[in-house]
Amino acid sequence: FIYFYRKGKPPRRHPPKKPSSNQTDPVGVYCRVRPLGAEDEECCIEVISSTTIQMHTPEGFKTNRNGEYKETQYSFKKVFGVSVSQMELFEHVAKPLVDDLIRGKNGLLFTYGVTGSGKTFTMTGSPGQGGLLPRSLDMIFNSIGSYQAKRYVFKTDEKNSIEIQTEVDALLERQRRDNNLSVPKTPSTRLKADPEIADMIKPEEASKSDGVDDDSSYSIFVSYVEIYNNYIYDLLEETQEDAIKPKPPQSKILREDQNHIMYVAGCLEVEVKSAEEAFQVFWRGQKKRKVANTRLNRESSRSHSVFIIKLAQAPLDADGDNVLQDKNQISVSQLCLVDLAGSERTGRTGAEGTRIREAGNINQSLLNLRTCIEILRENQMCATNKMVPYRDSKITHLFKNYFDGEGKVRMVVCVNPKTDDYEETLLVMRFAEMTQEVEVARPVDRPICGFTPGRRYRNQAFKDELSRRLEERGGPIDPDMPAAANTLILSLPSLPSCELTDPHDDITLPRLIEALENRQRIKQMLMEDYSKTGVCSHFTNMMKPVLQELDTSLISKDNFIQEQNSKLIEKDKIIQGNKAEIERLEKKTKMQEHKIDVLQKTTKIFEDGKRSLQHELETREQRLQRELSEKRRMEQRMHGVISDTQFKWEKECERRVNALQLEMQNKLWVKDEKLKQLKAIVTESKTPGRPEPPPRQTQGGGQAVQFTDIETLKQELTTCSVAVAMRAGSNLGPGLEHHAVIKRRKP
């Protein structure tokens, strides 16, 4: 046999190995323009072609350098205007992803935009205008409807893989689950649709894929989770409501399977058999999703929702009758439909309290998505090898495999053309333009199983032909056997049901033994009657092989029952061991989850403390910077004041010095004159032959000063001059005193 490329897991490339063809595809980005709410509102978006839109800057916003309004154009893979129907959008965006899903390839489709731009309507739709999600489900079941396996033939486990079991085991599990239900579901209750989701798709809009393998059997599993405040919650998980003390929902964790594919551990996966049932499951989870009323949107999504459609397929056996019992032949592909919460500004939405926290987490997760896209683009365009921070957010961590080449990635950018959303829409456009430049590796095609094609149709044709011939001949009897033998065989009592559901069943086997003994007794009686009545030897010879065949079939059935009984006992032991192991692992998982919660809470506390300390540190640094700048300003001002004062005092000192110098010069001149007069007097007194003058008396009647010695007079004059100079120096300071002494020495 030629094995499938994937073995019980979603098809993907192993990390060390590269696909045979290194072909890549860009991320498909589409744009959908929402109609304006009122006709008199100004529009800032214009669709100028099927791939291009133009942004007009409203009045009151910033303009470019030339003073004119700046008009920017953005290109997409396709632009859908306000008049485009949901059906046309599905044909271009989601239908190729559904075709790939049926062919065994993965796909990711998410809607992106500001709050109130029509993302949820694009993904879900409304009655009569079904969105991408219900149309995808309808197309899947229209394509594989007649090729679906019976319920529980495919079975999911807790490690993101699919197991396969026989129809007998599937029947036993179906009965066991039905018995565990407190209120059995009736067909009427299963098919009763919610009026809010009735008639989502018109019959004439049904789609069907051409890539279905006729010789394979299919089964669909769906799961629905939401990412709220960066925590993952299962929207399909049934919780017992306690009115007195309600329990909060338990968050789920992300894990990596053996093929390095991320999945939500402990998430409920529901097997569905019709599009109506699948959408009912989706709507049951949709009612639990976190929504709130804001100023911009009456039902604003406060979380990112992820609806996962998982398709399991396995080939039929060589006879084309049953599913091949080989786990290695199972191929699993999945399509993820993501409705991202809209980015918003709290100033416009009027958010308070919890809504502010929700908006902060939404904006942070979208920022992480943009960061991952930017780094991916930089690594591809600049040939760098920077680490992409997928783990910073749950939404990016969950879908990291898709950006690494696990399937196609497509994004629908929803925009609202009203001018109030211009700035947010501009950021969305820039992100969309950058996303289109990211290349994703093209997934590898799944090899085809080596069985002969057309097995299912040949087996069905054989059964139809056999049924037709049996109807013509009156039952499952050999053609050579007369009608009397046919009546004889049909007259035997039918065998009771021989299905064993419990190894300790003491009713089924005795009932079967009793029925076989009754048939044997009737057979002996018929043989004796025919022998007594002298039936022809030809009839007897024909009946002998029939009876021998019946005996052989009875013996083989008895052996089969014994084998099944032993298998049930062995399976019961295995089940008990698995239950004990599951309980142990569940306890271990709960303990680890509790530790993770404690660590997350501790981390959050430390992060809050770190943020508060950083904020306090930044505040103190700002205060210190302000004080330093104030100090520098004061120093500059004081330096200016000191310079002005110093200059003023220097001028004043210079003026005073000049005045004192002039005064001292005048005094010295006067004293010089007096000294000259004294010298003249002294000279005259020494002239010979001249008599000495009589001594003078003071005017007040005091004692007269008699100058008899010229040396004594000179000493007195010198002492007087020094005293005058010292008195002048004490008024001028030490520097000027030296100047005065110099001036004094000049005469």
TrEMBL record:
Alphabetical list of InterPro entries matching this protein: Kinesin-like_fam, Kinesin_motor_CS, Kinesin_motor_dom, Kinesin_motor_dom_sf, P-loop_NTPase
Q: Which residues bind ATP?
A: G113, V114, T115, G116, S117, G118, K119, T120
Q: What GO molecular functions are on record for this protein?
A: ATP binding; ATP hydrolysis activity; microtubule binding; microtubule motor activity
Task: List the SUPFAM superfamilies.
Answer: P-loop containing nucleoside triphosphate hydrolases
Location of the Kinesin motor domain: 26-438
Gene3D superfamilies for this protein: Kinesin motor domain
Coiled-coil segments = 575-637
Sorted keywords for this record are: ATP-binding, Coiled coil, Cytoplasm, Cytoskeleton, Microtubule, Motor protein, Nucleotide-binding
Highest taxon of the lineage: Eukaryota
Q: Where in the sequence does UniProt note compositional bias of the Basic residues kind?
A: 7-17
As for subcellular location, the record says: Cytoplasm, Cytoskeleton
Q: Which GO terms describe its biological process?
A: microtubule-based movement; mitotic spindle midzone assembly
Q: Which GO terms describe its cellular component?
A: kinesin complex; microtubule; nucleus
Q: In terms of one coarse class, where is the protein primarily found?
A: cytoplasm
Family in the record: Belongs to the TRAFAC class myosin-kinesin ATPase superfamily. Kinesin family.
Q: What is this protein called?
A: Kinesin-like protein
Organism for this UniProt entry = Pundamilia nyererei
